[in-house]
Amino acid sequence: MCAKTLNLKSRMPASATAGPANRNGLDRMATKKRLSYLNPATLQGSVEELSFLSSLSMATRSPSEPGLDKSKTRSNLSQLVTVDRIVEKKKSEPALVSLSGDEHVMDAQEQSTPVYKLYRRRWLGLISMVVLNVVAAMNWIWFSAIATSTAGAFDISLSQVNWLGQVVNLIYLPMALSIPSLIKIFGIRNTCFGAAVSLLLASWMRYAGASKALSSEGSYAFLIVGQIFAGFAQPVFQVLGPKFSETWFDLKSRTTATMIIAVSNPIGSALGQLIPPFISTPRASLLVLAVTTTAAIGTVAFIQEAPPTPPTYAGSRPSPPIMDTISAFLGRHQSSDPEAPSFTKTERIDFLILVMGFGTVVGAISGFSILTNQIAPVGYSEETAGFVGAALLLMGLLAGIITSPLFDRVLTHHLARSLHILLPPLAACWIGLIFAIQPNNPVPIYVVAGLIGVLGFILLPVSLELGCEVTRNAEVSSSIMWMSGNLWTLVFVLAADSLRDRAEPHGLRKELILIATVVSVATSFIFFLKGHQTRRQIDMEKSREANNIISL
Q: Where are the domains of the chain?
């Protein structure tokens, strides 16, 4: 018998340690003492101590004892069964180690209290996620601002150039849904490493297509295959953003971390529109992109799997499988397990509203970024088209940097109310952009595009975080919401190809009418959003419990 058990035995009354012959008349007192020592509400005692009490329980229940009055001990036996269940529960819990290194037995409630901690290395991982998101977005949108010159250099049509961006969105859809499963199988670090390798292959595959020795069909084949590899990589770094924030950051910085990762992809989009027009030829620009991507993907080494100690309760819990979450959302997955995913009717409606609103806003911004070069028929150069897209994205970035700390510390519990206030003006801005794009009218275009960026980028991390709150599953909610955004991007750009009227000088007007209509209809449902922040409430309760016990 170990020292801890002996120590317990010496502290217990004689009735609790008496032999079978003496226990007949003392079982009631033994039971009372045991239950007073092992209070189920506090779960005092170590695993060894609880096992010792369980062995006493077995002896007390022995039917072979002479003179045992079963009628008098029936209530005691039911209490003993409760004690034994507590013993089994304690045995199934992981061993608890004293931080001070001493051998004294601590109170089990204090031992089982989670200790949450932040690590400085989280910032290295955050920087790596930002850099990889930037280069992934550059690989996606590189041909947008130089669409006309790319079509001329490779002897392909403008629709073929658009498909260089669209194929990324097409690959994005199945990849986004597979990412939660990839994380479960390979983990965050290995999934990011695989995406980085895919980016490396994409960049040099496109540069191989820039060879003048190839025919236009051969060059286009290399370009499209390179974009397919880019399509495998981009959703990984976008979808992982909320999960990475949940794993490494606490309640006071989680929304900010999500914002930084979320807007880093649009930063890459801005750079992908600003840089190519200033490079001499589209073929030369592909070499610049390949070298930049190669230099950037080395930062993937700084992404770690998870901290030794989680920052919050949510950060310590593994997410349920994506199919279980989807089944629960559809009402097909019923389980008595409290850890199993479950949704109320309000949460289902909230998530549908978020997916619809987030998807149309992201699709509108991304689609407009791809189509900005088509304002050239109105009388603007490719450089001006690039500046319009950059104004939208960079103004949005500035707004996101300023407001995200406010949502972490001031507007913590008002994410849904923020969407109620900001989405209607965003829809109005898209309507205003229809009338702003006119010949020789650059200032209103810059202003309206900037306002769209400001409102859209404020809502971007707020919507992602609220989706995590409603579903309590960061990677699944993020993958579905980002998939919705790319689906709408695909719809808007394909519709633009169909609506383009080459005889009409205002080539983007019909596309903008479509975008403004869809965004206005989708965002009108935002007023039905309740947005209860369930995940944050659970985290705060667990944190308060830990602080209360530590203060004792």
A: 3-94, 121-319+342-536
